[in-house]
Amino acid sequence: MSNFWIPVHQELLHHPKTKKMSRLLKISTPATIGHLVYLWHWAVNYAPDGNLNKYDAYDISEGSEWEGDPVEFLNSLISSRFIVEINNQLHINDWNEYAGKFIKKAEKEADRKRKKREEWKMSAGCPQDVHRTDTESPQHGDCKIREDKIREDLSTCRNLKKICNEIETSSNEIENKRKNIKKENFEKHWSNYPNKKGSKEKSYKSYIKFLKQGFTDEQIGYAVEEYNREVIRKNTDKDFMIYASTFFNGRFQEFLKPEEEKKEIIPVKKPDWMIKAEKDEEIAKKRLLEKLKKNKSPFTVNNLENGFYPAEHKNDLFLTEGVN
């Protein structure tokens, strides 16, 4: 959107949010304001509703002209509440209250000018069936000037449209290259993972999801290598290895570097079937323990928790249907 401006309120200069973001990024307040203004003007063209959900940390940092760590920059925006989460999606805070009304105003103004130009074009024509006298020749000259102006404006519009198409094509090429790089990185991690059970397609979607949440490809790659080392160290049987689909859907967080484990870990919701299975197992253990006590068996709760069961009662753990 050309010829558009966003007002920068005086309170932004010394606002606690601005100061907090400056401290987090370890930069000056003028530099922070500059990055914010870049972000807002970038959003006018690429996120006019203030919704940033389809963009990752790299897109947002590039739009804000930030040359440092993209994840650190996005986290500073979230911590200082310039960006907030609404319905599990990232939005620029109070966007509609400030920039939104100016965008609508600009759109109305552009529509008004478009209609005015159409009216002007209709009135600028010189009907060929009108015979003019010598005294009317200046008016004819004015009409010719208007026609030339219209042609010039149309030529300018075509050139601008061509430039916009070239920019859009270039942006699409860059986005495709980024997607290809992410796909190649995931293929490398998938190839290195020891137990490729589970859906590869769902694993890739999970990988992209956690990248958008702020995790890096290097972190996930390190987690794969660390889990490989653990498998070798413990000589884990393949039947007991974590499924690849489970690993990439959040379990990789258990194998991050120690300093990274301190970061906020996004909990992964257990599926309903897993919750039911755990509940059924607890009920079965309690029932089995009551039976062992009744038969005066030497086995205890600790035996059950450590996986030791009397051979004659072991199948009781799988007979849980109908137990309340």
Description of the molecule:
Among the domains are: 10-97, no CATH class; 191-261, no CATH class; 272-318, no CATH class. Helix content is 61%, strand content 2%. The protein has helices at 16-25, 29-46, 57-63, 70-79, 95-124, 137-192, 200-212, 217-234, 244-248, 258-261, 272-294, 301-305, and strands spanning 83-86, 89-92. A two-stranded antiparallel sheet has the order 1-2. The longest helix is centred in the middle third of the chain and has 56 residues, at 137-192. The radius of gyration is 32 Å and the shape is elongated.
* Total DSSP helices: 12
**Mean of all residue-level pLDDT scores:** 78
For the biggest β-sheet, the strand order reads 1-2
Distance from N terminus to C terminus (CA atoms, Å) equals 63 Å
Order of helices and strands: HHHHEEHHHHHHHH
Helix content: 55-70%
Poorly predicted runs: 125-138, 318-324
Radius of gyration: 32 Å
Number of DSSP E strands: 2
The biggest sheet, with number of strands, parallel, antiparallel or mixed sense and barrel status, is:
2 strands, antiparallel
Shape: elongated
Concise overview:
With 324 residues, the protein is mainly alpha-helical. The protein has helices at residues 16-25, 29-46, 57-63, 70-79, 95-124, 137-192, 200-212, 217-234, 244-248, 258-261, 272-294, 301-305; strands spanning 83-86, 89-92.
What key phrases describe this protein's structure?
about 325 residues; mainly alpha; two-stranded antiparallel ribbon; 12 helices; elongated
